[in-house]
Design goal:
By secondary structure, the chain is α/β, with parallel strands linked by helices. It contains 8 helices and 10 strands. Helices cover 33% and strands 16% of the residues.
Length: 256
């Protein structure tokens, strides 16, 4: 893990955007995994502003609610087209978002995995982290080897997402999500976390034991994971000064 601590969410987002921009310059036909929720919004705005070339890029989204129409304002289909895809020059045929209305969820999930493999695997996966350490919708105690599948949301996640729906009783209880094993096969993972509510989950994921109780902790085993944080999300890290020292003193060819 490379822990990148910046003064603000905007500064941390700028680092993450430069990582993606470098990938697209070096590999115009890159395969990128995308996340939803409030955390990546700043990233998507910055990527739109940078006017990168997405013509050959393929994307796979982490997750989608089960039973929510694609046109629903809180569906992740709507989220992605409103906040990123509708503002870049990506080919619609290259966009993949889980189908929460499929008639056969297990069959769809197996197909999604095959599509990722057929595309050559994911070059870079964008991730957020839940207040309980979940990545994608892999809730605590999810298998660290899991693949794309249906998951039942915890009450805590339902509560966290209620702000998007207006009340808890309107939040779907089931989702399709990439598995942790799927995420771990990405060649690079880029996790963003901002604000004090994420501080405990980040500290446990980065400096705690690897455990399914904090699914993000498995990223300690990934060969190329960058964690971009603001000061508030980094507040409970014991080795924060070391992470800052490492980032500030990289050799020139490693600088972002």
């Amino acid at each position: 893990m490379e822990i990148i601590i910046q003064p603000s969410a905007e500064a941390a987002t700028s680092v993450a955007a430069r990582v993606i921009a470098r990938l697209l310059r070096e590999k115009p036909d890159a395969v990128i995994g995308l996340a939803t929720g409030s955390t990546p919004l700043l990233l998507y705005r910055e990527l739109i502003r940078m006017k990168l070339d997405w013509r050959k890029v393929t994307t796979f989204n982490l997750d989608e609610y089960v039973g929510l129409p694609k046109e629903h304002p809180q569906s992740y289909h709507s989220f992605m087209w409103e906040n990123l895809l509708g503002h870049i020059n990506i080919a619609k045929k290259n966009v993949h978002i889980p189908d929460g209305n499929t008639n056969d969820i297990p069959k769809f999930c197996a197909k999604y995995e095959k599509q990722i493999r057929a595309a050559g695997g994911i070059d870079l996966q964008v991730l957020g982290i839940g207040t309980d350490g979940h990545i994608g919708f892999n809730e605590p105690t999810s298998s660290l080897a899991s693949r794309t599948r249906i998951k039942t949301l915890t009450q805590r996640t339902v509560q966290d997402n209620a702000r998007f729906f207006g009340s808890e009783d309107k939040v779907p209880h089931h989702v399709i999500t990439m598995g942790i094993g799927t995420i771990m096969e990405a060649r690079q993972n880029l996790l963003l976390a901002f604000g004090p509510k994420k501080a405990r989950a980040i500290a446990e994921a980065v400096e705690g034991p690897i455990t399914s109780v904090n699914p993000a902790s498995v990223l300690q085993m990934h060969p190329v994971t960058k964690v971009c944080l603001d000061e508030e999300a980094a507040a409970q890290l014991q080795r924060a000064d070391y992470y800052r020292w490492v980032f500030d003193n990289k050799p020139g060819w490693q600088k972002i």
